Structure formats: C-alpha cells, structure tokens
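Reminder to self: tokens first, then the designed residues, so the page reads top to bottom the way the pipeline ran.
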C-alpha cells in the first residue's frame, strides 16, 4: 500500500489501521495526503484497485478571506499556528501525537488551502474501476465534513463517522 501523510504529520498510517488495506493495489492519504494520493492515482499508469481518502483536505468552498487569514496566521507565528492546528486535528480527543509530528511549510499549507478537487478526474478514476472510499468525521474542526460529504458522495463510498474529528478517533 502507498500512503501519503497529512500536513504536519509523518508515519501516522497506524492511526488508521482499521481502515487501510495492506496490499499492493491500494493508495491512501490523510488530509493533505489525500490530495497527494488522488494526484498519484490520477497520473499513474499502475494498477490501483482502491483509493482511500481519509479526512481529505477540502477547502474549495471556503472564501479567499479564510484562506488568506490561515496563511497570514501561519507566517506570523508558525509554532502557535501548528499548536492550534494539532488541537483542532485531535478534537474531540486529547492524546499524545508527538511521534507523528512534522513541521509543515507555508507552501504546503498554501497548496492544500487552494487545492480544487477535479470532478472530471474523479469520474475518470472511478470509470477506470478504482474504488474510491472517503472517510469523514462528524466533528471535524479542520474541514467542513458536511460539504466534503456532499461533494465526494458522487464519486465513491463516503463513510460519515459520528462523534469523531479529523483523525477519526472518538
């Protein structure tokens, strides 16, 4: 399985062991990593049976003001921004994720904030026979899981998990 990590994360796939499929034909990603997983599948000639998008970074419905404020806040005080980011990622839980932490860059943040999921490519991937699975948490404080649900339900199976946040733990 090929796995792509989220913004400010590394090696976090064990958090999603109950979702992931350990085989050579699955590509998965968490948050920002979901974008990278999608891009890989979209551009790959290799066989992929399943694309797993875990809490995909989905900000295309947010306005310009929101995106600029995020970037300004990050550039002003990256440490404080990332600390607050982790609190929101973990909500409603509070546990130690130290071993998964990685410093993200403003370029990575900019890319995920301004990324637009391409409907045509999602349809083409589905047409190629790739099973698309999307996992969203009801209490996600990073992305609007209802908007993401409404968008992705046209392209695959969406699992909307009650009482969990961005990392799908309750």
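Designed residues (170 positions):
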């Amino acid at each position: 399985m090929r796995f792509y990590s989220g913004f400010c994360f590394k090696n976090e796939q064990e958090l999603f062991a109950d979702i992931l499929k350990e085989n050579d034909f699955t590509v998965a990603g968490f948050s920002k990593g979901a974008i990278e997983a999608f891009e890989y599948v979209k551009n790959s000639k290799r066989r992929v049976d399943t694309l797993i998008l875990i809490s995909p970074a989905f900000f295309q419905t947010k306005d310009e003001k929101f995106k600029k404020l995020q970037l300004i806040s990050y550039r002003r005080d990256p440490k404080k921004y990332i600390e607050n980011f982790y609190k929101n990622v973990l909500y409603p839980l509070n546990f130690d994720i130290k071993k998964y932490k990685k410093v993200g860059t403003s370029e990575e943040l900019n890319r995920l904030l301004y990324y637009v999921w391409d409907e045509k490519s999602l349809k083409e991937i589905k047409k190629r026979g790739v099973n698309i699975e999307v996992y969203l948490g009801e209490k996600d404080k990073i992305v609007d899981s209802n908007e993401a649900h409404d968008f992705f339900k046209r392209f695959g199976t969406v699992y909307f998990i009650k009482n969990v946040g961005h990392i799908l733990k309750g």
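DSSP finds six helices and five strands in the chain.
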